[in-house]
Every structure is written in C-alpha cells, then in structure tokens.
Amino acid sequence: VKKTGRNNIQFFSQEMNRIVQKRLKIATELQDALDQNQFFLHYQPIVDYAQSRAIGVEALVRWKHRNKTRHPDEFIPVAEEMGLIVPLGRWVLQSALQQMRIWIDQGFLLNRLAVNVAVKQIHSAGFVDFLEYLLKENRIDPALLELEITERTLMFQDHHTLETLSRIRDLGVSISVDDFGTGYSSLNYIRNFPVNTLKIDRSFLTGLFNNHYDQAIVLAILAMAKSLSLDVVAEGVEQEEQDRFLRNNGCYLAQGYYYGHPVSPEKVQPLFDRIAQN
Ligand code: C2E
Ligand code: CA
Ligand code: CA
Ligand code: CA
C-alpha cells in the first residue's frame, strides 16, 4: 500500500509539473502572439426578433497559431491567470472599435457591438480612460458599445468593481451579464450593479426540451428581465424549436448557430443580408 501511495504521489507531481509547464509555454506563446499580431476577431450576429433581422454583433477573439485557429477557451483562462488578459483585452477593444468605424464608413450601420471583457481588465489601471479614448479616436457613439462581463466575476460585489462599472455607464456604454444563470445563486448583485442586458447561458438552451428545470429557468429569466426592464439575449440558439420557444415567450434578442457562426469582418454584412432574407 505504501509503495503504491508513493508512486501515486510521484505520478501526481509529474502530472502537475506537466500542467504547469504547459501553461508556462502557452503564456510565452501568448506574449509572442501579441507582439506578432497573431490575434484576430470574428463576429457573430445578434438577431432582433421584432425586426426579424440582425442588429449587431459580438466580437470573439481567435488566435492564429502555427497555421491553426485556436479558440478562446484554450487560451483566455491562461491569459487571465498570467496577467496577459490586460494587453490582449486592450487589443480586442481597439480592433473591434476600429472595425466598427470601417463598417460605418462603408455605410453598414450596426446598432450594437458587444465585446467581452475580463474583470481583471476592468480593474486594470486606466481602463475607463482608455475606453473613452478609443471611442473618441474611432468616433463611435458609446451607445453602440456593450461590454460583456461574466456573471461569475460580477458576484464579487466589491466597491471598486461597482465604481468602475458606473463610470463605464456614465460614458454611455452598456453592460451585459454574460453566461447568466450559471454563476451565482443569489441575484442580489443585479440590484447593485448598473447592468442593461442579461445573456442567458447556452447550457439552458441545450436542455430546453428535455429538462423541465432548464425550461423553467429560461422562462424565469425572461420574466425577471421583463419586470426589471432589462434586455435579454438568448445565446446558443441552434434549432428552430428553440428559436420558436424564445420568440413565443418574450425573448427579444438571439444569438447562435441557427442564425450564424462567428465570421470574419468581411462576411458580416453578407450574413446580415442572408438573415434578413429568411
Ligand atoms: P461567450 O462570451 O459565452 O461567447 C459565446 C461562445 O459560444 C462563443 O465561443 C461562440 O462561438 C459560441 N457559440 C455561439 N453560438 C453558439 C451555438 O449556437 N452553439 C454553440 N455550441 N456555441 C455557440 P468562443 O468564440 O469559442 O468563445 C468562448 C468564450 O471565450 C466566450 O464565451 C468568452 O467568454 C470568451 N471570449 C471570447 N472572446 C473573448 C475576448 O475578446 N475577451 C475575453 N475576455 N473573453 C473572450
Ligand atoms: Ca460573451
Ligand atoms: Ca455567454
Ligand atoms: Ca460562455
């Protein structure tokens, strides 16, 4: 028994070591990626049910790494842990707002540009000033921009977060709670935080027709958003039945493969046209 125990510990520490090494490697590669411009953004349409058309997009970061496209789940957690999320997040905001300016100059007018921000980024020095600068520099109406913050990170109701979010709102920028329903059991923070939009987490849509809890939760979120006058976006709409359910139950905005995958900036307008024709 003793021997196996020792072997297990040895195996465990080798495994830990391997994981740490891998993270360090990704962190170094991420720094290089920033220096070498290997990141790019894709955009996924957000559809307005009442208007039956796409009204905006969410920017989603991608990493071109050795001829492969890496998705954020593979590198955002490491970037957050290693502090690289701050420069990466700045790059994302800057590129998205520059792209918005390009679209406006082309006469392609979107009502909403949603950008994901990590809480570490919001807490970083000069974040709000940088945001204000980017909006001015690219001549973007702040009302068009929405920052998405995951519910998980909003649950820490510290004074600093609250103050920063209020300053963001004072600029005229909106705030949405991403992955809503997964983060926290108490809804208390909604009262305190200046949020505009709830994004229903994709996991609830997956179980919509085979788990009555998921259906009840979606209905409850829709009802709550309505009574609090918050916008709601349903994320991860893949099937017609899900789409119909959401429409029939008072959801205004939807996002998901049913309408379109995230695409490169050039493909956004054609995708919008296709959605409008259907
Ligand atoms: P998220 O903010 O919840 O973004 C939605 C994710 O769901 C995206 O994955 C999107 O491609 C995917 N998705 C959209 N519609 C569907 C659908 O119908 N079915 C399914 N199965 N998936 C769908 P992606 O692009 O891989 O991003 C993953 C997460 O990485 C994002 O989740 C977000 O939390 C984070 N992320 C992405 N870009 C950024 C960024 O620029 N900054 C930060 N801090 N985080 C980011
Ligand atoms: Ca998001
Ligand atoms: Ca989400
Ligand atoms: Ca998510």
UniProtKB/TrEMBL annotation:
Residues 23-276 form the EAL domain. This is Putative PAS/PAC sensor-containing diguanylate cyclase/phosphodiesterase. It comes from Leptospirillum ferrooxidans (strain C2-3).
